[in-house]
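dude i think i finally got it to work??
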Amino acid sequence: MKFIRIILFPIVPIYFFVTWIRNWLYDKGIMSSKSYEIPTICVGNLSTGGTGKTPMIEYLIRLLKDQKSVATLSRGYKRITEGFVLGDEDATADTIGDEPFQFFRKFKDIKVAVDGNRQNGISQLLSLEDKPEVILLDDAYQHRRVKAGLNLLLTTYSNLYADDIVLPTGNLREPRSGAKRADIIIVTKCPTDMSEAEKNKIVIKLKIKPEQKLFFSHVDYAKDVISKHGKIDLITLPNFTLVTGIANAKPLVEFLEKQQLKFNHIEYPDHYSFKPNDIEMLSNKGLIITTEKDYVRLSDNEILEPNLYYLPIEVAIDNSDDFDNAIKSFVDLKET
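look at this
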């Protein structure tokens, strides 16, 4: 794969030019964006994935849901349905996508919707009798037809967008200059012991503008793995098989190794659709630990379910009070 990316380098300038021109047309108003009176918060990235958008959306849900009626709007990647779908009692990972279904299962007091056309998705949500008061746009940073009221841009500590280039050789969906649209930039998956000197270096590298806010965050892993049958203390786990179908499993693997746990890792592509032969193979692996996103796709398999557990994670933000206040101030400001 790495070799293929190298030989495709001549395409990089073409991809750069096309995406840069597209952004320029939106910036100049030649291509139109639609804004909304309702507070809309976009969580996205410049890279192709693995920056922690899902736990960040969940953080925002927890922050706002007790005071406001919240809806999430995602594309619903790899779902079998089309158009606008609002999560209901018949929702599955197949009908609304794995990440939206994770939101739906975890947060019963919010609305979870999917639509590849974000404008239509927002219109559908606002046409509901009990319409939401805040809409969280999942992975919509490049969806320029909607102009979110607040843009949160995520970039990982181990692969800052400032150190990357556009596809197909790099991982960026658009040029690094796209970061200028962000109101808040969050460096995710940081070490828990980052020094202020290292943080300052990142501030300089990312060329943060005076009007932008920068925060650093890390992943908090739970102390227990969870299933329908209960919990098991993480550090007491016997040998197990780690199954992942996410963009970047490296931080999880490194965390489990630091706990001195013994496991074999079976890695699938992001949003992988598990096939019958995969299920049959995994059924012979004994205890299986997976991510929450993978769990929502695997837990309906009766032959896996008794031995299937997931490790919950949450995002922890440095200076979280400042971050929380920035989000709450935006929501309140948009409603006055």
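The CA atoms of residues 11 and 168 lie 7 Å apart.
im so relieved honestly
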